[in-house]
Protein backbone atom coordinates (compact mmCIF):
# COMPACT_ATOMS: atom_id res chain seq x y z
CA UNK A 1 0.00 0.00 0.00
CA UNK A 2 1.29 3.42 -0.96
CA UNK A 3 0.63 5.93 1.82
CA UNK A 4 2.40 9.28 1.93
CA UNK A 5 2.07 12.28 4.17
CA UNK A 6 1.33 15.47 2.33
CA UNK A 7 3.87 18.32 2.70
CA UNK A 8 3.45 20.73 5.57
CA UNK A 9 3.78 23.87 3.45
CA UNK A 10 1.92 23.75 0.13
CA UNK A 11 3.80 25.07 -2.85
CA UNK A 12 2.27 27.05 -5.70
CA UNK A 13 5.11 26.39 -8.12
CA UNK A 14 3.30 23.59 -9.98
CA UNK A 15 0.23 25.62 -10.88
CA UNK A 16 2.15 28.79 -11.76
CA UNK A 17 4.59 26.99 -14.06
CA UNK A 18 1.77 25.10 -15.73
CA UNK A 19 -0.01 28.39 -16.44
CA UNK A 20 3.11 29.93 -18.04
CA UNK A 21 4.13 27.14 -20.38
CA UNK A 22 2.81 24.91 -23.11
CA UNK A 23 1.72 21.50 -21.96
CA UNK A 24 4.62 19.04 -22.06
CA UNK A 25 3.57 15.66 -23.46
CA UNK A 26 7.05 14.18 -22.88
CA UNK A 27 6.71 14.23 -19.08
CA UNK A 28 4.28 12.30 -16.92
CA UNK A 29 1.30 14.32 -15.80
CA UNK A 30 -1.39 14.00 -13.16
CA UNK A 31 -4.95 15.31 -12.83
CA UNK A 32 -6.21 16.42 -9.43
CA UNK A 33 -9.82 17.21 -8.48
CA UNK A 34 -10.59 19.29 -5.39
CA UNK A 35 -13.47 18.48 -3.07
CA UNK A 36 -16.50 20.67 -3.74
CA UNK A 37 -19.69 18.81 -2.73
CA UNK A 38 -22.57 19.20 -5.17
CA UNK A 39 -20.48 21.42 -7.46
CA UNK A 40 -18.64 18.30 -8.61
CA UNK A 41 -20.86 18.43 -11.69
CA UNK A 42 -18.39 21.13 -12.80
CA UNK A 43 -15.87 18.32 -13.30
CA UNK A 44 -18.28 16.41 -15.53
CA UNK A 45 -18.52 19.39 -17.88
CA UNK A 46 -14.72 19.72 -17.91
CA UNK A 47 -14.21 15.99 -18.50
CA UNK A 48 -16.79 15.89 -21.28
CA UNK A 49 -14.86 18.65 -23.05
CA UNK A 50 -11.48 16.96 -22.65
CA UNK A 51 -12.75 13.49 -23.58
CA UNK A 52 -14.51 14.95 -26.61
CA UNK A 53 -11.48 16.82 -27.92
CA UNK A 54 -8.27 15.44 -26.34
CA UNK A 55 -9.12 12.11 -24.65
CA UNK A 56 -5.45 11.19 -24.34
CA UNK A 57 -5.08 13.92 -21.72
CA UNK A 58 -7.25 11.84 -19.37
CA UNK A 59 -6.40 8.30 -20.45
CA UNK A 60 -2.67 8.96 -20.49
CA UNK A 61 -2.46 10.58 -17.05
CA UNK A 62 -0.04 8.92 -14.65
CA UNK A 63 -2.30 9.47 -11.62
CA UNK A 64 -5.82 10.78 -11.23
CA UNK A 65 -6.27 12.26 -7.77
CA UNK A 66 -9.13 13.58 -5.70
CA UNK A 67 -10.38 14.53 -2.27
CA UNK A 68 -13.94 14.35 -0.94
CA UNK A 69 -16.41 14.50 -3.84
CA UNK A 70 -13.46 14.94 -6.19
CA UNK A 71 -12.23 11.43 -5.38
CA UNK A 72 -15.57 9.99 -6.57
CA UNK A 73 -15.09 11.67 -9.94
CA UNK A 74 -11.47 10.52 -10.06
CA UNK A 75 -12.47 6.95 -9.22
CA UNK A 76 -15.22 6.94 -11.84
CA UNK A 77 -12.82 8.13 -14.54
CA UNK A 78 -10.15 5.64 -13.46
CA UNK A 79 -12.37 2.55 -13.58
CA UNK A 80 -14.16 3.59 -16.77
CA UNK A 81 -17.61 4.77 -15.62
CA UNK A 82 -19.09 6.97 -18.40
CA UNK A 83 -19.42 10.68 -17.66
CA UNK A 84 -23.09 10.52 -18.65
CA UNK A 85 -23.82 7.88 -16.03
CA UNK A 86 -21.98 9.88 -13.39
CA UNK A 87 -24.03 12.95 -14.35
CA UNK A 88 -27.27 10.96 -13.88
CA UNK A 89 -26.22 9.89 -10.37
CA UNK A 90 -25.18 13.41 -9.31
CA UNK A 91 -28.50 14.85 -10.48
CA UNK A 92 -30.39 12.03 -8.79
CA UNK A 93 -28.70 12.71 -5.45
CA UNK A 94 -29.31 16.45 -5.71
CA UNK A 95 -32.97 15.88 -6.61
CA UNK A 96 -33.50 13.47 -3.71
CA UNK A 97 -31.99 16.00 -1.30
CA UNK A 98 -34.13 18.85 -2.65
CA UNK A 99 -37.32 16.82 -2.22
CA UNK A 100 -36.93 17.09 1.56
CA UNK A 101 -37.69 20.27 3.44
CA UNK A 102 -34.38 20.32 5.32
CA UNK A 103 -32.42 19.06 2.32
CA UNK A 104 -29.27 17.16 3.21
CA UNK A 105 -29.96 17.73 6.92
CA UNK A 106 -33.25 15.84 6.90
CA UNK A 107 -33.12 12.77 9.18
CA UNK A 108 -34.24 10.44 6.37
CA UNK A 109 -31.48 11.54 3.97
CA UNK A 110 -27.87 10.39 4.20
CA UNK A 111 -25.33 11.76 1.75
CA UNK A 112 -22.79 9.11 2.72
CA UNK A 113 -25.33 6.33 2.14
CA UNK A 114 -26.08 7.77 -1.30
CA UNK A 115 -22.36 7.70 -2.12
CA UNK A 116 -22.10 4.12 -0.87
CA UNK A 117 -25.08 3.01 -2.98
CA UNK A 118 -23.51 4.65 -6.03
CA UNK A 119 -20.18 2.89 -5.48
CA UNK A 120 -21.75 -0.51 -4.84
CA UNK A 121 -23.87 -0.24 -7.97
CA UNK A 122 -21.44 1.34 -10.42
CA UNK A 123 -17.98 0.06 -9.57
CA UNK A 124 -17.03 -3.08 -11.54
CA UNK A 125 -15.80 -6.19 -9.76
CA UNK A 126 -12.18 -5.50 -10.77
CA UNK A 127 -12.34 -1.82 -9.84
CA UNK A 128 -9.54 -2.19 -7.27
CA UNK A 129 -7.26 -3.65 -9.92
CA UNK A 130 -7.93 -0.78 -12.32
CA UNK A 131 -7.54 1.83 -9.58
CA UNK A 132 -4.36 0.52 -7.94
CA UNK A 133 -1.37 2.64 -8.91
CA UNK A 134 -3.45 5.16 -10.89
CA UNK A 135 -6.06 6.49 -8.47
CA UNK A 136 -4.80 8.61 -5.56
CA UNK A 137 -7.25 9.40 -2.73
CA UNK A 138 -6.68 11.98 0.01
CA UNK A 139 -7.68 11.06 3.58
CA UNK A 140 -7.48 12.87 6.90
CA UNK A 141 -6.61 10.69 9.90
CA UNK A 142 -9.02 11.29 12.75
CA UNK A 143 -6.55 10.88 15.62
CA UNK A 144 -3.97 13.50 14.61
CA UNK A 145 -5.45 15.27 11.57
CA UNK A 146 -2.54 14.24 9.31
CA UNK A 147 -3.04 13.72 5.60
CA UNK A 148 -2.67 10.27 4.06
CA UNK A 149 -2.63 9.49 0.33
CA UNK A 150 -3.78 6.01 -0.68
CA UNK A 151 -3.17 4.60 -4.16
CA UNK A 152 -3.11 0.82 -3.61
CA UNK A 153 -6.23 -1.24 -2.94
CA UNK A 154 -6.41 -4.93 -2.07
CA UNK A 155 -10.10 -5.45 -2.82
CA UNK A 156 -13.17 -3.74 -4.20
CA UNK A 157 -14.60 -3.32 -0.70
CA UNK A 158 -11.38 -1.69 0.47
CA UNK A 159 -11.57 0.78 -2.42
CA UNK A 160 -15.14 1.65 -1.43
CA UNK A 161 -14.10 2.17 2.20
CA UNK A 162 -11.27 4.51 1.20
CA UNK A 163 -13.61 6.59 -0.96
CA UNK A 164 -16.23 6.79 1.80
CA UNK A 165 -13.58 7.89 4.31
CA UNK A 166 -12.48 10.68 1.98
CA UNK A 167 -16.09 11.86 1.58
CA UNK A 168 -16.99 11.92 5.28
CA UNK A 169 -17.36 15.53 6.38
CA UNK A 170 -17.98 15.63 10.17
CA UNK A 171 -21.56 16.49 11.24
CA UNK A 172 -22.55 17.17 7.61
CA UNK A 173 -22.33 13.44 6.80
CA UNK A 174 -22.79 12.08 10.32
CA UNK A 175 -20.98 11.74 13.63
CA UNK A 176 -19.15 8.37 13.40
CA UNK A 177 -16.41 8.37 10.73
CA UNK A 178 -15.92 5.24 8.62
CA UNK A 179 -12.75 3.19 9.04
CA UNK A 180 -10.11 1.86 6.68
CA UNK A 181 -7.90 -1.00 7.90
CA UNK A 182 -8.96 -0.43 11.48
CA UNK A 183 -8.22 3.32 11.50
CA UNK A 184 -10.90 6.00 11.28
CA UNK A 185 -10.52 8.74 8.69
CA UNK A 186 -12.55 11.77 7.61
CA UNK A 187 -12.80 14.14 4.65
CA UNK A 188 -9.50 14.41 2.79
CA UNK A 189 -10.27 18.04 1.91
CA UNK A 190 -9.69 19.00 5.56
CA UNK A 191 -5.94 18.33 5.24
CA UNK A 192 -5.17 18.19 1.49
CA UNK A 193 -7.87 19.21 -0.96
CA UNK A 194 -5.62 18.99 -4.01
CA UNK A 195 -3.47 15.81 -3.94
CA UNK A 196 -0.10 15.96 -5.75
CA UNK A 197 -0.53 19.71 -6.16
CA UNK A 198 3.19 20.23 -5.57
CA UNK A 199 4.26 18.15 -8.56
CA UNK A 200 5.29 20.17 -11.59
CA UNK A 201 3.04 18.63 -14.24
CA UNK A 202 -0.20 18.24 -12.26
CA UNK A 203 -3.35 19.62 -13.86
CA UNK A 204 -5.41 21.08 -11.02
CA UNK A 205 -9.18 21.38 -11.38
CA UNK A 206 -11.46 23.27 -8.97
CA UNK A 207 -14.88 24.95 -9.34
CA UNK A 208 -13.68 27.99 -7.35
CA UNK A 209 -11.99 30.95 -9.01
CA UNK A 210 -8.32 31.08 -8.08
CA UNK A 211 -5.00 29.75 -9.35
CA UNK A 212 -6.09 26.27 -10.41
CA UNK A 213 -5.42 25.32 -14.03
CA UNK A 214 -9.08 24.68 -14.80
CA UNK A 215 -11.31 26.97 -12.75
CA UNK A 216 -13.77 29.85 -13.23
CA UNK A 217 -12.28 33.22 -14.14
CA UNK A 218 -13.56 36.39 -12.50
CA UNK A 219 -13.73 39.60 -14.49
CA UNK A 220 -12.19 41.74 -11.73
CA UNK A 221 -8.72 41.49 -10.23
CA UNK A 222 -8.60 40.29 -6.63
CA UNK A 223 -5.78 41.09 -4.25
CA UNK A 224 -7.02 38.77 -1.52
CA UNK A 225 -6.82 34.99 -1.79
CA UNK A 226 -7.27 32.16 0.67
CA UNK A 227 -5.11 29.04 0.46
CA UNK A 228 -6.83 26.12 2.11
CA UNK A 229 -5.86 22.51 1.65
CA UNK A 230 -3.55 23.37 -1.28
CA UNK A 231 -6.40 25.13 -3.12
CA UNK A 232 -6.23 28.82 -3.94
CA UNK A 233 -9.61 30.55 -3.59
CA UNK A 234 -10.12 34.22 -4.36
CA UNK A 235 -12.16 36.25 -1.90
CA UNK A 236 -15.15 37.52 -3.86
CA UNK A 237 -18.92 37.25 -3.91
CA UNK A 238 -18.85 34.64 -6.65
CA UNK A 239 -16.80 32.25 -4.56
CA UNK A 240 -19.01 32.85 -1.54
CA UNK A 241 -21.95 31.65 -3.59
CA UNK A 242 -19.95 28.72 -4.96
CA UNK A 243 -18.91 27.55 -1.50
CA UNK A 244 -22.48 27.78 -0.18
CA UNK A 245 -23.89 25.77 -3.09
CA UNK A 246 -21.26 23.11 -2.48
CA UNK A 247 -23.05 22.06 0.71
CA UNK A 248 -26.64 22.81 -0.32
CA UNK A 249 -27.94 21.18 -3.53
CA UNK A 250 -28.80 23.83 -6.15
CA UNK A 251 -31.68 23.70 -8.63
CA UNK A 252 -31.28 21.60 -11.76
CA UNK A 253 -30.88 24.68 -13.93
CA UNK A 254 -28.08 25.94 -11.68
CA UNK A 255 -26.35 22.56 -11.88
CA UNK A 256 -26.61 22.72 -15.66
CA UNK A 257 -24.96 26.14 -15.67
CA UNK A 258 -22.17 24.81 -13.45
CA UNK A 259 -21.65 21.90 -15.83
CA UNK A 260 -21.41 24.19 -18.84
CA UNK A 261 -18.96 26.46 -17.00
CA UNK A 262 -16.74 23.44 -16.48
CA UNK A 263 -16.88 22.69 -20.20
CA UNK A 264 -16.00 26.27 -21.18
CA UNK A 265 -13.17 26.56 -18.62
CA UNK A 266 -11.66 23.24 -19.75
CA UNK A 267 -11.80 24.39 -23.37
CA UNK A 268 -10.00 27.61 -22.44
CA UNK A 269 -7.31 25.55 -20.68
CA UNK A 270 -6.79 23.38 -23.77
CA UNK A 271 -6.39 26.47 -25.93
CA UNK A 272 -4.00 28.21 -23.53
CA UNK A 273 -1.76 25.11 -23.37
CA UNK A 274 -1.86 24.62 -27.15
CA UNK A 275 -3.22 21.13 -26.61
CA UNK A 276 -5.85 21.42 -29.35
CA UNK A 277 -4.58 20.47 -32.78
CA UNK A 278 -4.81 22.65 -35.86
CA UNK A 279 -7.72 20.55 -37.11
CA UNK A 280 -9.84 21.52 -34.11
CA UNK A 281 -12.70 23.83 -34.91
CA UNK A 282 -13.00 27.23 -33.21
CA UNK A 283 -15.20 27.39 -30.16
CA UNK A 284 -17.81 29.55 -31.89
CA UNK A 285 -18.22 27.04 -34.72
CA UNK A 286 -18.46 24.13 -32.30
CA UNK A 287 -21.08 26.05 -30.33
CA UNK A 288 -23.14 26.59 -33.50
CA UNK A 289 -22.89 22.91 -34.45
CA UNK A 290 -24.03 21.81 -31.01
CA UNK A 291 -26.84 24.35 -31.04
CA UNK A 292 -28.27 22.81 -34.17
CA UNK A 293 -28.68 19.45 -32.43
CA UNK A 294 -31.72 18.74 -30.28
CA UNK A 295 -31.11 18.54 -26.58
CA UNK A 296 -33.38 15.64 -25.67
CA UNK A 297 -35.82 13.05 -26.98
CA UNK A 298 -38.80 15.19 -26.05
CA UNK A 299 -37.51 18.01 -28.24
CA UNK A 300 -37.00 15.58 -31.14
CA UNK A 301 -40.56 14.29 -30.78
CA UNK A 302 -41.94 17.83 -30.55
CA UNK A 303 -40.16 18.82 -33.78
CA UNK A 304 -41.44 15.73 -35.60
CA UNK A 305 -45.00 16.28 -34.43
CA UNK A 306 -44.82 19.94 -35.40
CA UNK A 307 -43.55 19.14 -38.90
CA UNK A 308 -46.19 16.43 -39.35
CA UNK A 309 -48.99 18.77 -38.28
CA UNK A 310 -47.82 21.51 -40.65
CA UNK A 311 -47.69 19.06 -43.55
CA UNK A 312 -51.29 18.05 -42.83
CA UNK A 313 -52.38 21.68 -42.82
CA UNK A 314 -52.92 21.87 -39.06
CA UNK A 315 -51.40 24.17 -36.49
CA UNK A 316 -48.43 22.89 -34.57
CA UNK A 317 -49.51 21.31 -31.28
CA UNK A 318 -48.73 23.33 -28.21
CA UNK A 319 -47.03 21.23 -25.53
CA UNK A 320 -45.58 22.31 -22.24
CA UNK A 321 -42.19 20.81 -21.46
CA UNK A 322 -39.80 21.29 -18.58
CA UNK A 323 -36.53 21.30 -20.45
CA UNK A 324 -33.82 23.84 -19.79
CA UNK A 325 -33.14 27.12 -21.47
CA UNK A 326 -31.01 26.17 -24.46
CA UNK A 327 -28.55 29.02 -23.85
CA UNK A 328 -27.64 27.41 -20.51
CA UNK A 329 -26.37 24.17 -22.07
CA UNK A 330 -25.55 25.14 -25.65
CA UNK A 331 -21.85 24.14 -25.39
CA UNK A 332 -22.35 20.73 -23.79
CA UNK A 333 -22.35 17.44 -25.71
CA UNK A 334 -25.74 16.16 -26.78
CA UNK A 335 -25.64 13.25 -24.31
CA UNK A 336 -25.15 15.58 -21.35
CA UNK A 337 -27.81 17.95 -22.70
CA UNK A 338 -30.34 15.13 -22.82
CA UNK A 339 -29.63 14.06 -19.25
CA UNK A 340 -29.92 17.59 -17.89
CA UNK A 341 -33.14 18.28 -19.80
CA UNK A 342 -34.79 15.07 -18.62
CA UNK A 343 -33.72 15.68 -15.03
CA UNK A 344 -35.17 19.20 -15.12
CA UNK A 345 -38.40 17.98 -16.67
CA UNK A 346 -38.82 15.05 -14.24
CA UNK A 347 -38.20 17.16 -11.17
CA UNK A 348 -40.32 20.05 -12.50
CA UNK A 349 -37.60 22.24 -11.10
CA UNK A 350 -37.86 24.73 -13.94
CA UNK A 351 -41.28 26.02 -12.92
CA UNK A 352 -42.57 27.76 -9.83
CA UNK A 353 -44.33 25.47 -7.40
CA UNK A 354 -46.12 26.47 -4.18
CA UNK A 355 -43.42 25.15 -1.89
CA UNK A 356 -40.82 27.33 -3.64
CA UNK A 357 -42.33 30.56 -2.29
CA UNK A 358 -40.52 31.98 0.73
CA UNK A 359 -43.48 32.16 3.19
CA UNK A 360 -44.51 28.60 2.41
CA UNK A 361 -40.94 27.38 2.79
CA UNK A 362 -40.58 29.16 6.14
CA UNK A 363 -43.77 27.53 7.43
CA UNK A 364 -42.63 24.14 6.17
CA UNK A 365 -39.26 24.53 7.86
CA UNK A 366 -40.91 25.48 11.17
CA UNK A 367 -43.34 22.57 10.98
CA UNK A 368 -40.53 20.18 10.13
CA UNK A 369 -38.42 21.38 13.06
CA UNK A 370 -41.43 21.08 15.40
CA UNK A 371 -42.36 17.60 14.21
CA UNK A 372 -38.74 16.47 14.30
CA UNK A 373 -38.32 17.67 17.90
CA UNK A 374 -41.56 15.96 18.91
CA UNK A 375 -40.50 12.72 17.26
CA UNK A 376 -37.09 12.95 18.89
CA UNK A 377 -38.63 13.56 22.33
CA UNK A 378 -41.01 10.64 21.87
CA UNK A 379 -38.22 8.31 20.77
CA UNK A 380 -35.97 9.34 23.67
CA UNK A 381 -38.80 8.91 26.20
CA UNK A 382 -39.69 5.53 24.75
CA UNK A 383 -36.07 4.45 24.84
CA UNK A 384 -35.70 5.62 28.45
CA UNK A 385 -38.83 3.73 29.52
CA UNK A 386 -37.65 0.61 27.75
CA UNK A 387 -34.24 0.87 29.39
CA UNK A 388 -35.83 1.42 32.82
CA UNK A 389 -38.13 -1.59 32.45
CA UNK A 390 -35.20 -3.70 31.29
CA UNK A 391 -33.14 -2.69 34.35
CA UNK A 392 -36.03 -3.47 36.73
CA UNK A 393 -36.58 -6.86 35.12
CA UNK A 394 -32.89 -7.70 35.37
CA UNK A 395 -32.76 -6.70 39.04
CA UNK A 396 -35.88 -8.74 39.82
CA UNK A 397 -34.56 -11.80 38.06
CA UNK A 398 -31.21 -11.42 39.80
CA UNK A 399 -32.81 -11.26 43.25
CA UNK A 400 -35.05 -14.24 42.50
CA UNK A 401 -32.23 -16.35 41.13
CA UNK A 402 -29.92 -15.53 44.03
CA UNK A 403 -32.64 -16.40 46.55
CA UNK A 404 -33.39 -19.78 44.99
CA UNK A 405 -29.78 -20.83 44.55
CA UNK A 406 -28.51 -20.03 48.11
CA UNK A 407 -29.02 -23.19 50.27
CA UNK A 408 -28.32 -21.34 53.52
CA UNK A 409 -31.06 -18.81 53.04
CA UNK A 410 -34.36 -20.05 54.54
CA UNK A 411 -37.40 -20.32 52.33
CA UNK A 412 -40.83 -18.91 53.09
CA UNK A 413 -42.10 -22.25 54.36
CA UNK A 414 -39.09 -22.59 56.65
CA UNK A 415 -39.75 -19.11 58.00
CA UNK A 416 -43.43 -19.93 58.66
CA UNK A 417 -42.67 -23.28 60.32
CA UNK A 418 -39.98 -21.75 62.50
CA UNK A 419 -42.29 -18.98 63.64
CA UNK A 420 -45.12 -21.44 64.41
CA UNK A 421 -42.75 -23.66 66.41
CA UNK A 422 -41.57 -20.72 68.44
CA UNK A 423 -45.20 -19.74 69.20
CA UNK A 424 -46.02 -23.28 70.39
CA UNK A 425 -42.89 -23.37 72.55
CA UNK A 426 -43.78 -20.06 74.15
CA UNK A 427 -47.34 -21.28 74.84
CA UNK A 428 -46.03 -24.43 76.55
CA UNK A 429 -43.68 -22.38 78.73
CA UNK A 430 -46.54 -20.15 79.82
CA UNK A 431 -48.71 -23.22 80.66
CA UNK A 432 -45.90 -24.67 82.76
CA UNK A 433 -45.53 -21.38 84.61
CA UNK A 434 -49.27 -21.24 85.30
CA UNK A 435 -49.28 -24.83 86.64
CA UNK A 436 -46.31 -24.06 88.89
CA UNK A 437 -47.96 -20.97 90.29
CA UNK A 438 -51.24 -22.87 90.90
CA UNK A 439 -49.57 -25.73 92.73
CA UNK A 440 -47.65 -23.32 94.92
CA UNK A 441 -50.80 -21.52 95.91
CA UNK A 442 -52.56 -24.79 96.80
CA UNK A 443 -49.71 -25.88 99.06
CA UNK A 444 -49.72 -22.63 100.83
From TrEMBL:
<keyword id="KW-0378">Hydrolase</keyword>
<dbReference type="GO" id="GO:0005737">
    <property type="term" value="C:cytoplasm"/>
</dbReference>
<dbReference type="GO" id="GO:0004806">
    <property type="term" value="F:triacylglycerol lipase activity"/>
</dbReference>
<dbReference type="GO" id="GO:0016020">
    <property type="term" value="C:membrane"/>
</dbReference>
<dbReference type="InterPro" id="IPR016035">
    <property type="entry name" value="Acyl_Trfase/lysoPLipase"/>
</dbReference>
<feature type="region of interest" description="Disordered">
    <location>
        <begin position="400"/>
        <end position="444"/>
    </location>
</feature>
<feature type="short sequence motif" description="GXSXG">
    <location>
        <begin position="66"/>
        <end position="70"/>
    </location>
</feature>
<feature type="active site" description="Nucleophile">
    <location>
        <position position="68"/>
    </location>
</feature>
<feature type="short sequence motif" description="DGA/G">
    <location>
        <begin position="187"/>
        <end position="189"/>
    </location>
</feature>
<dbReference type="InterPro" id="IPR033562">
    <property type="entry name" value="PLPL"/>
</dbReference>
<feature type="compositionally biased region" description="Polar residues">
    <location>
        <begin position="434"/>
        <end position="444"/>
    </location>
</feature>
<feature type="domain" description="PNPLA">
    <location>
        <begin position="31"/>
        <end position="200"/>
    </location>
</feature>
<keyword id="KW-0442">Lipid degradation</keyword>
<dbReference type="Pfam" id="PF01734">
    <property type="entry name" value="Patatin"/>
</dbReference>
<protein>
    <recommendedName>
        <fullName>triacylglycerol lipase</fullName>
        <ecNumber>3.1.1.3</ecNumber>
    </recommendedName>
</protein>
<feature type="active site" description="Proton acceptor">
    <location>
        <position position="187"/>
    </location>
</feature>
<feature type="compositionally biased region" description="Polar residues">
    <location>
        <begin position="400"/>
        <end position="426"/>
    </location>
</feature>
<dbReference type="GO" id="GO:0005811">
    <property type="term" value="C:lipid droplet"/>
</dbReference>
<keyword id="KW-0443">Lipid metabolism</keyword>
<dbReference type="InterPro" id="IPR002641">
    <property type="entry name" value="PNPLA_dom"/>
</dbReference>
<dbReference type="GO" id="GO:0019433">
    <property type="term" value="P:triglyceride catabolic process"/>
</dbReference>
<dbReference type="GO" id="GO:0055088">
    <property type="term" value="P:lipid homeostasis"/>
</dbReference>
Amino acid sequence: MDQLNSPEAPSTVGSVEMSEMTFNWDEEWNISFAGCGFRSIYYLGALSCILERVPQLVHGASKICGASSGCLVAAAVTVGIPVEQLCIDVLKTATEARKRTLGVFHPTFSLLRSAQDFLLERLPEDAHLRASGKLCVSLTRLTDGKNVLVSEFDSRQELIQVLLCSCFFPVYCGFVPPSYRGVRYMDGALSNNMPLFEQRNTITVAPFSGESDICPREGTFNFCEVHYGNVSIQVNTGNVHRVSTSFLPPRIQTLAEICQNGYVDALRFLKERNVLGAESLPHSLMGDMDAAKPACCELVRAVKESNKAQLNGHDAPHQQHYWLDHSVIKNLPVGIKKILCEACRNSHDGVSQPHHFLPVRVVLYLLTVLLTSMQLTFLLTKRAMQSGCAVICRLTSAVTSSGSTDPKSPTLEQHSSTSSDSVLSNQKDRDKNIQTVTSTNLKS
